[in-house]
Amino acid sequence: MEQLSFFPEAGQTPGLPVELLEYHPGLFTEKECGLLLQKFIIQSPWQQKVVRMYDKEVVTPRLCAWYADQETYDYTSLRRSAPNKWTPELMAIKLKVEKIAKVKFNSVLLNYYRDGNDSVAWHSDNENALGKYPVIASVSFGQVRSFDIRFKEDHSEKYSIRLESGSLMIMKGNLQQDWEHRIAKSTRPMNARVNLTFRVVI
Ligand SMILES: O=C(O)CCC(=O)C(=O)O
Ligand SMILES: [Fe+2]
């Protein structure tokens, strides 16, 4: 596993808009990260979403799992359904990030990127169920991956941030309205990464 950075600013491109993205590295120790990563990989009820692209059905290049307080819009099945129940680990992480984000979350989406071929394409989390200016808390374990953002109206305005193992990134402001984000594929060999995005689903 990669070392945690001792320099909070090391993972950020200069000029990263702090009103959109807040970065808190080192929320969990390297040892905690290793244990949690293995536990999530082994114990989560992973699903691979099938989406329609033109007239073909394709599977998303990553695995997902959805946990929430009650029946909600489920990101893994794209419909309202009974979610998985909070595990003790997820609840403990939720309470920790709620203190920093100052938001009470009612759900979490887990994404499992098995290697450099796994990714999430450019998108915004702008579903009605999240409200107009959602605060989303993103916690990463395992392989460091680059998180890219680009301004919808001018794709040349873009930034990257390296999401280190054990870090928390808070997405807020008009990030989901006016910007898109992605985790690109990588040609370099990549180990497993599990990302948790805590959300408030209405
Ligand atoms: O894996 C990540 O860091 C981002 C995941 C993401 O954008 C999403 O689940 O909507
Ligand atoms: Fe997203």
UniProtKB/TrEMBL annotation:
InterPro entries the record matches: AlkB-like (IPR027450), AlkB-like_sf (IPR037151), ALKBH3 (IPR032854), Oxoglu/Fe-dep_dioxygenase_dom (IPR005123)
Keyword Nucleotide-binding applies: no
GO annotation terms (biological process): DNA alkylation repair
Signal sequence interval, chain numbering: none
Record has Acetylation as a keyword: no
Record-linked SUPFAM superfamilies: Clavaminate synthase-like
Name of the protein in question: Alkylated DNA repair dioxygenase AlkB
UniProt organism field: Pedobacter westerhofensis
